[in-house]
Design brief:
This protein is α/β, with parallel strands linked by helices. It folds into three domains: 4-238, 3-Layer(aba) Sandwich (Alpha-D-Glucose-1,6-Bisphosphate, Chain A, domain 3); 246-511, Alpha-D-Glucose-1,6-Bisphosphate, Chain A, domain 3; 513-636, TATA-Binding Protein. It is built from 23 helices and 21 strands. Helix 15 (359-376) runs parallel beside helix 16 (399-407). The radius of gyration is 25 Å and the shape is globular. The model has no long low-confidence stretch (mean pLDDT 95).
Amino acid sequence: MNDLPEALAAAAESGQLLEAARQNIELLLAGAATDLPMNSVKELVEAGDFSELNDRFFKKLAFGTGGLRGRTIGRKVTNTEQGAGGPNDRPEFPCVGTATMNYYNVSRAVRGMVAYVQGFVEEGKTPTFVFAHDTRHFSKNFADFCAKICADLGCDAYVFEGPRSTPQLSFAVRQLRADAGVVITASHNPSHDCGFKAYFNDGGQIVEPHASAIIDEVNSITSERYEYADEPGEVKTLGEDFDAEYVELLKTLVLRPELLEKSPTKIVFTNLHGTGGHINVPMLRGLGFDVLTVPAQDIQDGRFPTVDSPNPENGPALKMAIDLANTSGAEIVIGTDPDADRMGVAVRNKEGEMVLLTGNQIGSLMAWYRLKTCFDLGWLTNANRTRGVLVKTFVTTELQTAIANAFGVSVVDTLTGFKYIAAKLKKYEMAIPADKKGDYRSLTQEQTRALRLEFSRFFVFGGEESYGYLGSDAVRDKDANGATLMFAEVAAYAKSEGKTLVELLDEIYSEYGYYLEIGKSLTMEGADGAAKIQALAGDYAKNPPEEVDGSEVIRFRDFSAQDIYDQEGDLLPKEKMLFFDLEDGRSFAVRPSGTEPKIKYYLFGKSEVKGDLPAAKEKVKDGLAGLWKWIENDAKGRG
């Protein structure tokens, strides 16, 4: 093929190739540093595989709720990409495209961050970055690649010696006083995906105004080529000594250490081929827990070969661990996703059966226990309880609100994405007078708690329905390592009371009301799918229903268009999420995913118990089943 531009133009004119894809192909080829992108595109054009080209080039990756995320292995792998092959049966080279994760996009992303940070830090200071990676295909390659680029551009960089979790990256940014950080991960996405998750100097994911400014810097870069700094930076390695610092922080999450001695709990832990076992297994064993692991899943492997999805939210991902629990007599199962920011569990009921808990149930158990124990320990009192705060997302269960209200502790709802919880933690830290807090990050948790209770807000617990939890403001992202320890303590507490965790949860329902939430989604992949998702979301905004499943819509909130304030009076950023509250107490939210090809639905139901918990459960379950059936049928006629 002698004239690739002519072939692309012809394909676009005939409708086989999206015009946006044609333009993005030309953009990438013009800025490529090697012939690999050209050869890969030629292969697909010669094969007439314009659907694959559309999926790879229909857009440019942009920062969403999780940073950059996309396929690093195409649906069709070209011979050029396959090359000599790589570890764990992956291709030698990542997927070519402007909508995919590859060296071209990673280079643009990190160079955009460097450019912004260099203009942000004080003059004369050498900017410092931290890079971590999980076990995914190309994850280590991208992390080392980013560190090299930083050094080439005159910045210092820290890189972990091996796979590490996302929350440890957040901790490292804060502990090392770095200016920014990146973890290369796609969390629990399928094995063909990878991502670039960006953090700023507070240890939280990048939010406004930094996010838009960095996006502008990234978008201004169209070539892989760059000029080296006159004075290169230094690349340093983080290893076991730094792991130990992180573990010491995690141990402070234990509120009643004596419980771990009095009521030792037998746990089956699985890291689902990811990073979670590196910290959790030795930490739990060192604290006295009897921990078994799933040998086949201990192996760090980006193929995630023993599961269809490495997502602890999904029951099948924990099957091998549950089977081991049943043969060993373990009381709970804990699983973490590849980058160990999400945690899922199964617990044994009084009949001896293993029961999966939802993310909302897990979070509610921990929120209740930590609030109760903070009062038991005297950290929170009638005098200072208004300083305590629980932070959650709008789509997280209102059971946690009911619990906090009963304790007289504030609740703040944020938009979806843990970066917004982190932004609240930054706000609370900044509210402490500078002459009182000094170097805040060097203080003990006891010292920071005292300062927050006197001058600001004491963050008791935070979480989101999608299995993400946090118990300390020393980390600024959801932390499955900390959540594992916090949940194990709740299990030890229940055992000390002679109860199963299922019984403890039912007691909470009986006291505060029964709440049930169901997460649903419609998946629409590729360029066509992305257009359908946006059309469907847009139609809900333009034509919101007035009645849903026989119940009047009494409140409609469009978070992308309306000015909405949180409980502290802070104006929320605009986000594509719609919320419908029904007259009968049910609610549902609609949100296009920022990291997956899905439009997500969150369904909420609640009921007073009035002494009959089984009846309340059945009533709410039936109500949500009817609500989802109505939503499914309604969606078919939209978009």
